[in-house]
Amino acid sequence: MLDFFVKYPRLGRLFDMLLPLLATLAALGVGAIMLQLLGANPVTAYGALLQGAFGSQNALADTIVRATPLLLVALGICIAFRAGVINIGGEGQLVAGAILGTLVGLMFPEAPGIVIVPLALVAGFIGGAIWGGIPGLLKAYYNVNEILSTIMLNIIAVQGMNYLLRQPMIDPAQAQLASRIPQTARLAQAFDLPRWIPTRLHLGALIAVILAFVVYIFLWRTTIGYRIRAVGLNPDASRYAGINVKRNIVLALLLSGAFAGLAGAVQVYGVHHRMFTDGSLAGFTGSAGFNGIVVALFGKLNPIGAIPAAFIFGALIVGANSLQRAMQVPAALITALNGLVVVFVVSSDYFSRRLARNRRTGAETPAAPPKSTLPPALSIEGEASQ
Amino acid sequence: MISDLFTTTVLIGILTSGIRLATPYLFASIGEMFGQRSGVLNLGVEGMMLMGAFAAFYVTLTYGNPWLGLLAAVIVGGVMGLAMAFISVTLGAEQGISGIGVYLFGLGMSDLLFQRMLGTVETVRGFRPVGDFFATQFPNLLPALLAIPIIGSITSILAQQNIMVYLAYALVPVAWFVLYRTTLGLKIRAAGENPAAADALGVSVARTRYATVTLGGIMAGIAGASLSIALLNVFQQNLTSGLGFIAVALVYFGGWRPYGVLFGALLFSMVNALQLWIQALNIPIPFDASELLIMMPYVLTIVVLIFSAGRVRTPAALGTPYERGS
């Protein structure tokens, strides 16, 4: 089959682009088998899922609302992975941004929204940047594996959040009650992100889409973006070319965290209007920090590609919830399917590489550079960048 | 009072729980260590643990025999390990990310099965403390030993552990022996240090990595089982809550050596036991922040990673798929 695509390079390139989609279809196929085993008709179930995600104006709006944090996190993931660093800390960075963003709104309840909201979003950006910058510094200057440090920082963030919401940041009204639900007071109505009444769609979605283009321009049209990508493609060559590899690794993780943090602030000001916790990270984030990785990979680490990818996964999540309501199929199925999508998409890179190699060795076509989803320097250890 | 911590009963309690809490880390980390030594980073440990924990719990609940439960965990973990080996060795996929995929799969799947097949949180009669066994077999032995001053304390610590705890600790010298004193261990290390050279000498890098990653999956399954049918005797969604990722961190922490991993696991779980006891005893700390105590082991892990990162050398081929002639 691959020989066929070598003979017709244009079809080959199309195949390359469609690979994530094919991988997802394969995952959905497995999902259909699982649904069958759960005693649900896969066709009706996927029908209910689609209906839940796109069936009405409200459903569509909810899908976009769910897609927004996924897109923002994915933008950060694109930057980190392009620099050859793996950021698993989206969850913690999102929470860090949400906390700092919420603090701004809580501290100035009387201030005008036009001042506070932008300030809070910037605070979220900074909160995430701090939480992403720490593993960046640890990797660049202490050679601490970023996968591990970001995972640890996730756990530290959730405990920090639980503490803050239970003690200093707790809603004063809750503090009087015996139940003491760990959540902040509702932020002033004036701070709500503008909403498209009657749906839940808020301005955050537009901000995320605009930022997707900004990140694209940043990565491919600016010197700093070029350096970040160069470090990801070949840290050694970058160093010989005079690029400060360490500084760019820190910058990439910092920016990566910043976008996750912004996602947190957007969730607070656009959706929840307060912070709350059920004790776990996913309780507040809805696993957006993890699913953002899926979205970024699905978009082939391209910020523009992440827009439709986020939309698809937002639909999956919203659809899964209505699937749970309509057919009693646990929404956990979608978490499992997301995992399969990640595995299949990453594995499908095998065909991209095979195709590229066949192209190089094939007599019919001139040599083409190997195309791969992931930068070659995206290896686990930091030595390459030392 | 803080001095409450220094009574014999509490110290024995801390040691007992510290030793016990290291069990899942030991199983998962030793398994992961073999994979990493051969050049494969398996980040899906957490997902495999969850699946193993569920399988063990469900089978034990159904058939009433924890050994059958353990067997179920071995099978489930082994299958997931085999899948991870296929993904990372045969397909050569990026290991860090595909591991996250395996984790998400295990997280969702175990939750799905839990909701479908159990529905509510139940407890199960898992592995009992070895002391129970001795108390029935030799009714006079235990009380006699417990009466002796220091030996009594040690006996008390040992008698409260179950067989899984003993297995976990026995694994450490076995792993050391396999890794450093057998041909298999040499092959594993060669595949992780210089796969091309290993290949040239006739070592099948692929087969070696398949073996270690599958073994890692089995051990992760057992680690999950040690939680659900030996330490906690319950299953609920996301039972492991990050434990599997810490197990991966402990491999780095321990410098890819069995005794290093043992030291890391013990340090981590002792600190954890200490904070649990501080909470249990209601010792007044300057402000009410149990969360800050829970954080302690994780902060400690980062700190130790900082200090150990420069000291030990990573297996050279860790995380890189091997393809002949490239």
Description:
Chain A has helices at residues 2-7, 9-37, 42-54, 57-82, 90-107, 113-142, 146-166, 172-176, 204-221, 223-233, 235-240, 245-272, 281-285, 288-298, 303-327, 332-361. The relative contact order of chain A is 0.20. Chain A has 386 residues and is mainly alpha-helical. Chain A is built from 16 helices and no strands. Chain B has one domain: ABC transporter involved in vitamin B12 uptake, BtuC (Orthogonal Bundle), CATH 1.10.3470. Chain B has 14 helices and no strands. Chain B has helices at residues 8-37, 45-63, 66-90, 95-117, 130-137, 141-147, 149-159, 163-181, 183-193, 195-200, 205-231, 243-253, 258-280, 290-309. The radius of gyration of chain B is 21 Å and the shape is globular. The chains are: A mainly alpha (386), B mainly alpha (326).
Notable features of this structure?
heterodimer; A: mainly alpha; ABC transporter involved in vitamin B12 uptake, BtuC; disordered C terminus; B: about 325 residues; mainly alpha; globular
